[in-house]
Design a protein that fits this description.
By secondary structure, the protein is an alpha/beta fold. It has 10 helices and 9 strands. It has helices at residues 41-56, 78-86, 91-107, 123-129, 157-165, 167-176, 182-187, 197-212, 216-249, 252-263, and strands at residues 17-22, 25-30, 62-67, 112-116, 120-121, 133-137, 141-143, 180-181, 193-195. The strands form 2 sheets. Strands 1-2-3-4-6-9 form a 6-stranded mixed beta sheet, with helices on both faces. Strand 2 (25-30), helix 1 (41-56) and strand 3 form a beta-alpha-beta unit. Helix 5 crosses helix 9. It is globular. The termini are far apart. The mean pLDDT is 96.
Length: 272
């Protein structure tokens, strides 16, 4: 008698994220294209749920993280950021979810491949950089301009940037908030590959195919080993990072940074 294969876990229905299986590949797509996949409260919470599902999903061996439309993620949604700034007690929820997103991304033992289809800014950059391998489209930009809004880069940027490009370069980009083009990012090792947009899918699919045809147990164990130091750093830094960012959320400079962005002018920071 032939045994019936166990049913695969049902994909969660999330309002701001699309999830789909393609064989043993699980595709997670940030899905607020009209807002350039900027992270609001719903997307922040959905990200944590999607990644937790991906971690335990028995129906997949490789994960692709990408964005719908023109951008990967433009970072924090400005209306959401302003609401937190004017009601800073709401940011306490964000801190718990941010820690969960970072820890889950580092705990997933399956390879996570980033299909960086467009700009990745702030939290969007952190999400991309915490993936294992990044394929970026030419024309995309990546950077973490928390400081440009008077915020501390406490949601994971301080953990991952230095591990990808070294401490001195990481400080340069985190302290200035400068955005890099995909080609610049590839040159310094911030991302793995920069390819023309028209071949991005083929490049990602070919790499995922190699992983899917590889020795799954060996690949997963190798990822676990290479992530051990990252997890140690995240454990050491995330609580302090979130605490410092929580303080900066309550600062006058943060409100000034928001207002300047809305008015499309340079901020006048005072150090308060």
């Amino acid at each position: 008698m032939t045994e019936t294969a166990p049913a695969l876990p049902a994909l969660p229905a999330l309002g701001t994220i699309e999830m789909a299986r393609e064989g043993r590949l699980l595709r997670i797509t940030l899905n607020r294209p009209d807002a350039l996949n900027a992270v609001n409260l719903a997307l922040h919470d959905d990200l944590a749920a999607a990644l937790l599902f991906a971690q335990v999903d028995t129906g997949s061996d490789v994960i692709v993280l990408t964005g719908a439309g023109r951008a990967f993620s433009a970072g924090g949604d400005l209306d959401h950021i302003e609401n937190n700034a004017r009601n800073p007690h709401l940011f306490d929820h964000e801190t718990r979810v941010a820690k969960r997103i970072v820890s889950t991304l580092l705990d997933i033992d399956k390879p996570v491949v980033c299909r960086l289809n467009g700009h990745a800014v702030g939290l969007g950059a952190t999400l991309a950089l915490l993936c294992d391998v990044i394929f970026a489209a030419e024309g995309a930009k990546i950077g973490d301009p928390h400081v440009g809004l008077g915020l501390v880069a406490g949601d994971g940027g301080a953990v991952i940037w230095a591990q990808r490009i070294g401490l001195t370069r990481a400080k340069e980009y985190l302290l200035t908030g400068e955005l890099l083009t995909a080609s610049q990012a590839a040159e310094i090792g911030l991302v793995n590959h920069c390819v023309p947009l028209e071949v991005l899918d083929a490049a990602v699919d070919a790499f995922c195919g190699r992983l899917l045809n590889g020795a799954t147990l060996a690949i997963r164990a190798t990822k676990i080993l290479t992530n051990l130091e990252l997890k140690r750093l995240a454990t050491a830094l995330m609580d302090a990072g979130i605490a410092y960012e929580s303080l900066s959320v309550r600062s006058a400079d943060h409100l000034e940074g928001i207002q300047a962005l809305k008015e499309k002018r340079k901020p006048n920071f005072t150090g308060r």
